[in-house]
Here is the input.
Amino acid sequence: MIDFKRLIGQFVVSSGWRPGPRQWVSDRIGDWQLGRHPALPAMQLVGAEDRPVGWLIGYPISEAGTLLTDGACVRVPAPALRSEAELEEFIYAFGGRFAVVMLGAHLRFYVDPYGSLSALYCAHQRIIASTPNLIPYDEASRDRVDLALAIGIPYTDGMYPLDMTPRYGVERVLPNHYLDLRAWRTVRHWPKRPLEAEASVEEAIADIASLVKRNIGAVVAATPTYLKLTAGWDSRMLLACSKEWAPRLELFTAEIGDEGAATDCDTARRIAKRLGLRHRVLPREQARDEDLEEWMFRIGYSTSEQRGWRAVTMYKRLPGGHAVLAGNAGEIARAYYWNDADAETTEITPERLVAHCDCPLEEEPLQRARAWLDSVPTRNAFDILDLFMIEQDVGGWASVVQYAECDPGFAIFPLCHRGIVERMLALPASYRRMGRMAQDIIAREWPALLDWPVNRPIGATRILFRMKRAIKKARLT
Here is the structure.
């Protein structure tokens, strides 16, 4: 028996009458029903004469820099109801974490640019949901037991490749795709042609910083907000873009128990102390079995993230009801998937993509990777790898785990905006390979944050690590 109260911030959309969970909020438009956990906002989309034409679900941020609130009505411009291009321009003017159900002429389901309000669907049951747990089992939607065992979730960092999930007949809606609700199949809607030529770095950095600041400002104005500060580039970039609102943020860092976490905690403490910012360190704590199980239950065993999973009990010590600013997707601008030997003309093979997921090179995963490669309208290896980063690592991994880490609160990616994606992918390849975007945004917005090294221990922490390594080496010899 599913405890729907535990599926915080989740939803199900279905065609035809299906009784929703009694603990959830239920909305209907014609034959379509939206069921959602009470903590998940939804806004009704309306057209002419205030006629309902769909739902905007989640945490969308308007062009005016406002986080939309539960129960609001959002008017869809008349051209967007007639034209696919106008509709997608309307949808992707929003930032934040959201999904869109469009009814009427455009019968479609869209996810945000990173699929950060993660969704999957079962075509033969005509259901869209946030987790496999919300899709009933039948003979055609049983568990993929052999593949699950081969990937090793949750005891590895493996991922289901692309649109695959832990169940047959249940597919993921990837970023840059919509779900056609007539044919019940996904269609790539972006990009439809090779990506634009290289842009001015200075202009791109200014535009990206402006959009990130708009997203952050909208969240901080609406709700108490955490920022998980580490020693890395991405969280520091978010902090730089939060300078105007920094006194209202609460920073936190988790002592997970490895050298990376120790460096994170030490660096974050130093930054917060010098700049007078609120900061807490979550002390190391063994994860409770019931917390580990709930983490996986919330995402339906759809992926794994070892460090976050093992820290689940620690994260529960944070007071709920906050938004969490997460730095995911910054890797897109720093050649995260590129190898040193890669060039624009490098052939990207299905085997390379599937291997990246720590998934066996079996025929079905490879077939999915071939189909994905065929859908990408470019042969530029760098663009292919960056799109795979967006659709696999962000859409099929980072976005999925957000459902596990909310008590109740919600996570949001300030880098989630189509304009940011376009500008990151238009940065020159040489610049992306150097990984300079975060550094340049910090230099522009809050240069004092460059006074601390990135992902390197400082002072006594560095000496301690050297001593531990020396002792370990001496024992081995």
Observations:
- The CA atoms of residues 334 and 432 lie 5 Å apart.
